[in-house]
């Protein structure tokens, strides 16, 4: 029987190991490889865009090295803070990122503040720089999210829709009660059948990258692409968080869903204001 199964699409994956390979007994996981591939793709695209607009591509190489560690620390810190009960009795597990547990919003926040320091040190303008970075972040997220697929985590509730996905129950990172109620027995093998929210977010980010790339060549003010990223990602993440079963909570409120709504609305207001301001300038000229 397959380990992963999309029954309504006719796709079966008989074996998908979390471990890609080992070196001298040290396991290297697909999760880490996909995150690194995301960074590599982001750097490639940033360099290409930098050349197009006359920026120094080396700046983006330096920035990638700058944020590689900062982004991962931020992503881990965000996850640990809002799921502290899982680490309270074993604090050393905080440092065990090989088992997963990275929250994208934590990485985004860390990267944003790191960029404030970076542009000051390099004496370059912040908003044009971040306009180049924003589409690249979307690509990195799209690739990195696939690591959740390999880890059998970040999924939604039970569904029998077109994209319904089955995992072998014993391999799932965690099974919420609402999903366990719909366990499926196939020839003696128990499966959970869920919504692949990691896939939804990955595809959403691919579409967001395409949109941001299109407007990068047509932007009307510095910071426009950054604002569009936060609006687009915020809307998508708000929807996806609503169907996930592993939300990070604070006082009964899904943290990332609330943050998504705030970012989308706030950046939307700023975006509309800037467009009207730029339109007024054009009419006066």
Describe this structure in words.
The protein is α+β, with helices and mostly antiparallel strands. Helix content is 58%, strand content 11%. The protein has helices at residues 30-53, 57-81, 104-122, 126-144, 146-151, 177-180, 197-216, 224-241, 255-284, and strands spanning 4-6, 11-13, 19-23, 26-29, 165-168, 184-186, 189-194, 249-250, 253-254. A five-stranded antiparallel sheet has the order 2-1-5-7-6, with no helix packed on it. Strand 3 and strand 4 form a beta hairpin. The longest helix has 30 residues, at 255-284. The relative contact order is 0.11. The mean pLDDT is 90.
Major pleated sheet = 5 strands, antiparallel
| Average pLDDT figure | 90
What structural category arises from helix and sheet content?
alpha+beta
Q: How many helices in DSSP terms?
A: 9
Q: Note poorly predicted spans.
A: none
What's the overall geometry?
Answer: globular
Helix content: 55-70%
End-to-end separation: 69 Å
Q: In percent, how much strand structure appears in the residues?
A: 5-15%
